[in-house]
Amino acid sequence: MVNPVPAIPSERRKIRVSTSGEDVLLRLCLIALGVFLVVGLLLPIYTLLSKGVQDADGNFVGLQNFITYFNEPRVSVVFFNSLRISVISTAITLLIAGGYAFALTHSRMPGRGFFRAVALMPLLTPSLLPGIALIYLFGTQGFFREALLGYSLYGPIGIVMGEVFFTFPIALMIVLTSLLTIDRRLYEAAKTLRAGKVRTFFTVTLPAMRFGLSAAFFAVFTKVFTDFGVPITVGGSYPVLATDLYQKVIGGFDFQMGAVVGILLFIPAAIAFLIGHLLQRGHSAGIDGSAVIYIPEKSRGRDIACFVFCAAVAAAILGILLMAVLGSLFKLWPYNLSLSLASYNFTAHESSGWSAYGNSLKLAGGTAVFGTALIFFGAYLLERMPGAAWMRAVIGFLCMVPLAMPGMVLGLSYIFFFNNPSNPLGGIYGTMTILILSTVVHLYTVPHLTALTSLKQLDPGLEAVGSSLKVSRFVTFGRVILPVSLPTILRIASYLFMNSMTTISALVFLYSANTKVATISVLLLNDNAMLGPAAAMSVLIVATSAAVVSLQWLLMQGLLRRTNAWRGKEA
Amino acid sequence: MMTPKLRTRLRLFCASLMMSGTAFAWTAPVQAEELTVYGAMAKDHFAELIAVFQAKEPDLKINQLLDSNGPIIARLLAEEANPRADIILGAAVPGLVMLEERGMLEPYAPEGLDQIKDRFRDRRSDPPNWVGTDAWASAVCFNTAEGERLGVAAPQSWQDLTKPEYKGMITMPNPNSSATGLLAIVGWAEIFGEEGAWEYMDALHENVSQYVHSGSKPCRMAAAGEAVIGISYPAPGVKAINDGVPLSVIIPEEGVGSEVEGVAIVKGARNPDAARRLADFAASQEGHEIHNKYYALVGRKGVSNPVPNYPEGEEAALVDVDFYWVAENRDRILAEWQERYGRKDEPK
User: What's any one GO cellular component for it (chain B) (predicted)?
Assistant: First the structure.
């Protein structure tokens, strides 16, 4: 399968000699990818960082802005508010996601597939949606306001509730993966050694979950810390960094301070990302591909308990989604609850009307097409191109950076970078192109990793076989790699589409007269307390993402059946 | 080896990947004359103005962006080095003065300027940097159904709002993001004096449940029962009453601060001709008749039809606000406000 190590360099040299034109072309493509990341990521970040150490007239003032910011008496409050709600939301999310994942993998309760599907539904929603639904449920006029025992939804309670909903599927997926990798033989061994159920849980299950839980901790923490949608809807006057940044820039016209807050938003997110990344790396080395999947024994009591727990969680998720749908149909909440479609007549509520939805489709379509091509081909270059090792390492690292980059910070840095008259690319400011560019960069890392994983699975000898048949790498790419990877490409495209439909953070600073998108429309409607139309637009976004994901799933089924015959029965 | 045709195709593919960062544009090629309008006025008002103007100029391609006052000004400042807007419609005057002082406005005297009332135009410069179209004032929205349920009577004055019975029932726009919020404060400063205004706000703060982002939100929150009382302006309340919400719009006895909003042309506008034509239209009799449908008080002399359901006695209650003073003291007022009330939910 793989050539003995010493053979590789000689073979590489041979290829370079026989098809040097192709090699140059590959390198040019790699350089193009590098240029893309430098222009779309590094230079804007650099501009932002330098803004942070300048005064309004552009003179260098060192850390003066940071000192000013920290001298504001309320800054520590804002910072610690952000920290506090992030830790609390993360703890609650992990607790629920851990239990849910355990129930899905370690019980035989009925409806596991259904529960799994329901748990992933929040991925389809913009983070504004849970906030809006919570207002209907627990707001001052909410249907279940008594449940809060007189406490106000607006503030930490609302933010935590919304964030738990929003981040639950992220935590669940990570924990679930870690649980699925537990080898059944470990349980068999525990049983043979006469370990009790409790002891088995603490010595086998929990250690396996521990990695998943800690990885999930950092993923969820970053998400909550940088999220903007939930606090802007139900944060009341409880300030957090993300809303403070919005306030500073949009309300106070203070771009220097905006840059400072942006940098502050970036640091904890970056730390969490780094730790999470290191954890991942340390762990995945230990996973053995040959683990035998655990099949739980029968246990009625456990199954009932698991079922009740999962049913409660699923009911909460569905309740929030249904509340948003119902809310969008009320005629005049809370005084006239007869149903009507008036909220969907967007032209009557918001200046951009339906065109915002059209723009979202353009953005999502553009990001899916352009992003998928770029990310997959980029991953191919990084994973399977011969030579240029250091260049690949540097670009490979750049591809990871967007994961730690809060969308709002990216958006702000784009204003500074692209709307500079001396920037030759300034023409894209205010167009759909800059929205697509920012979204592709913002979402880059996850699909990049998906593509890498899938490309790694392909036999490294494919290109070698190709070249021994005197076929170029491009032909191998087009005839073998691309078709085999179609499921992955499809998954990437649908991920990009879905997330472009629901994202808001980078776009709040970048949309223009002609490119207002649906999530921005939701934000503006909510800012004006037009709850019904805001709910309606959110529902439309969810419906669209759901349709795209279903389409992807259907295509996948067909594709897998046709193209994956070679993988054998397991796939 | 690669076939030549395939190689060309792949080169094209790579080249297009390289180029896509720059050339991947959705914008149509420039043909017709364009005009980019940034609006900060009420949605219906803005839509009607643009629709009527568009009917006069069918060949003009109008790009419009409507947002609250704060975001529009923030955007203009962000784009200062490289302006995207040609003309600003309906921005509050303190914001316009701020832009003027940064040299971002192009002075222009629209046709019929002599017909515009004095306090509705930039008096420091001729031709003026901006021309007012309409004015609006603070108001209090009160949800009568919620008031009845909770057993509180409608407040009649600003001082009433500090009564303990309204504790936790009031919302107010955050002046840091909302011109309406700033206007309320400026009004209080005129009425109670600046010191008195801070004392008043200290007392009011005890009753406020939330400071919110936009100026119309407090009134809409009152309309939705999310709050009982919203410090806001009349228009959203009038609309809610027309929709059947049990709401009343109250002009407090002590008087209310008013704010002029107007039109201004951006310096460095890419389409100055079209911008001037829109400015002419906004200042014209026809334009003012449109403004008058939404605001009782407009800039042109002799246009003053009553607006249906608008609270009575607004004009009599108006307190004269010096917007130059506001523009000058804005930063200081906002910083002070933030210092005093920005940490509503700080743990004790």
Answer: outer membrane-bounded periplasmic space
Q: Give the pLDDT band of residue A14 (cuts 50, 70, 90).
A: very low
pLDDT band at A558 (very low <50, low <70, confident <90, very high): confident
**Which residues on A lie below 8 Å from B227 (Cβ)?**
140
**Torsion angles phi and psi, residue B283, rounded to 5:** -90, -5
Please report the domains of chain B, with CATH numbers, ordered by start residue. Answer: 34-136+258-310 (3.40.190.10), 139-251+327-341 (3.40.190.10)
What residues contact A185, with CB distance under 8 A and at least 6 apart? A292
DSSP A126: -
Separation between Cα atoms, residue A446 and residue A174, nearest integer Å? 13
Q: Which of A81-85, A361-365, B41-45 has the lowest mean pLDDT?
A: B41-45
Q: How far apart are CA B143 and CA A423, in angstroms?
A: 52
Q: Are A205 and A178 in contact (CB under 8 A)?
A: no
Backbone angles phi, psi at B139, to 5 degrees: -160, 165
* Rounded alpha-carbon distances, angstroms, from residue A119 to A58, A97, A168: 49, 9, 7
| Helix, strand, coil abundance in chain A, percent, nearest 5 | 75, 0, 20
| Count of residues in chain A | 571
DSSP one-letter code for A155: T
Note the pLDDT of residue A340. 92
The alpha carbon of residue B32 and the mean position of all alpha carbons in its chain are separated, in whole angstroms, by 30
Asked if A9 reaches chain B (Cβ–Cβ under 8 Å), the answer is no
Residue A175 confidence (pLDDT) above 70: yes
Low-confidence ranges of chain B (pLDDT < 70): 1-31, 343-348
Give contacts of A334 with chain B, Cβ < 8 Å.
224-225
A513 to B64: CB separation less than 8 angstroms, yes or no: yes
**Which chain A residue shows the shortest CA-CA distance from B175?**
A251
Q: Indicate the residue of A32, A141, A512 with minimum beta-carbon distance to B14.
A: A32
CA pair distance A453, A476, nearest whole angstrom: 19
Alpha-carbon distance of A276 to A282, in angstroms, equals: 10
Contact A74, A243 (CB under 8 A): no
pLDDT in tens, A284-309: 544 455 567 778 888 899 999 999 99
Average pLDDT of A265-269? 84
pLDDT in tens, A211-227: 888 888 988 998 999 99
pTM over 0.90? The answer is: no
Which domains are present in chain A?
A: 10-50+348-567 (1.10.3720.10), 79-336 (1.10.3720.10)
As a whole number, the mean pLDDT across chain A is 86
pLDDT attached to residue B347: 37
Contacts of B102 (CB under 8 A, 6+ apart): B77, B80
Between A28, A154, A351, which is nearest B66 by CB? A351
Residues of chain A contacting B149 with CB distance shorter than 8 Å: none
Q: Measured between CB atoms, does A77 come within 8 Å of chain B?
A: yes
Question: Given the structure tokens 């009740």, which residue do they identify?
Answer: A308
ipTM topping 0.90: no
The mean pLDDT value for A160-188 works out to 89
Q: How far apart are CA B300 and CA B262, in angstroms?
A: 12
CB–CB of B65 and A237 under 8 A?
no
Give the CA distances from residue B11 to residues A16, A339, A381, B15, in Å, rounded to whole numbers and listed in that order.
18, 57, 15, 6
SS3 category, A88: helix
Q: What is the pLDDT of residue A236?
A: 85
Q: Which residue of A has its CA nearest to B247?
A: A335
Asked whether residue A179 carries a pLDDT value surpassing 60, the answer given is yes
- B73 CB neighbours in chain A (<8 A) are 253
Percent of chain A with pLDDT over 70: 92
> CA A268, A272, A278, A281: dihedral to nearest 10 degrees?
-140
Q: Which helix (H) or strand (E) holds B83?
A: none
